[in-house]
Design brief:
Bound molecules: 5-S-methyl-1-O-phosphono-5-thio-D-ribulose
Oligomer: single chain
Radius of gyration: 20 Å
Distance between the termini: 35 Å
CATH architecture of the largest domain: 3-Layer(aba) Sandwich
Strand content: 15-25%
Structural class: alpha/beta
Amino acid sequence: MKVNGVAYRTIWPAGDGRTVEIIDQTKLPHDFAVARLTGLEEAAHAIRAMLVRGAPLIGATAAYGLALALAEDAGDERLEQASAVLLATRPTAVNLRWALERMRARLAPLPPAERAAAAYAEAAAICDEDVAINRAIGEHGAALIRAAAAAGAPGEPVNVLTHCNAGWLATVDWGTALSPIYAAFEAGIPLHVWVDETRPRNQGASLTAWELNRHGVPHTVIVDNAGGHLMQHGRVDLCIVGTDRTTADGDVCNKIGTYLKALAARDNGVPFYVALPSPTIDWRIGDGVREIPIEERDGTEVSELTGITADGRIETVRVTPDGSPLANPAFDVTPARLVSGLITERGVCAASREGLRALFPDAGRAA
Ligand code: MRU
């Protein structure tokens, strides 16, 4: 996507042929900054501290992180150690494990002298595939928005509610949940997006709003608790969210608060769609509530808020009483029964084992 007229992805190899550049998402929306990753530790830190975030981008960054590690030492031990460091950065998005397993399957059989070059090539392939997958998700999802527009009053915008940031910043490009929105917008379908702020880290208010604003897509930022009220009053036509891990039975794990939106959508007859690239499917598990590891992040994300002051300074303030205990589960699981459909690169399917298998008959069979 373009920023100030320049086309960007969220991660790319730097001109020196060795290091990697990323958009530092901790600086948005107030500053657009590019950061350089020069080695394994910086890549791991970028994922942990959420300079990069979003399931597909976490996977792509881990792939490049492995390449950076092997550029220093491509022996067997380094391959294992670097993979373990990267795998431990964030527990919930399965794209991380997927990318590292793909990289190791490609690299382990090679002689060490060939591994670094092959690692950069494989990381680039993962990125290119992510872009193509997300474009396809956009086309399939846009058909749902087009259908909603046709069912509504002529010329009236389709109101789509989204949670967190599953836009181009969460992927290498285009996004998952926002890709259908961009595709529908480009096709001239009138639409408007309700953007959940997404406490505690505000990925909706800071990242989704920034993306949509840049792209000229009509949108309104709302507090997380407003969605149910808007649905009760007929002001949401459909919800589209992303997912960090989708089970073989169609349960989806996404940013904390997604489950409550799905419950409100069900109670109000609002379709609730989840957009996902196939590397987000964990074919090894079925019951998301019991089997998906939920990341617990630092309590300061709950107690503190960062923003820009009227005179342009970035400041962090505490909003809770000193000493109050804090809990910060970062994701929740929405059971498949609450999901109207899964938007994948191969089309839209039911959120069920049968639905997913019909689109991906051979995936994950060896696991
Ligand atoms: O904690 P984050 O910002 O990495 O969480 C991101 C999300 O929850 C996204 O919705 C999810 O990764 C899907 S991204 C295409």
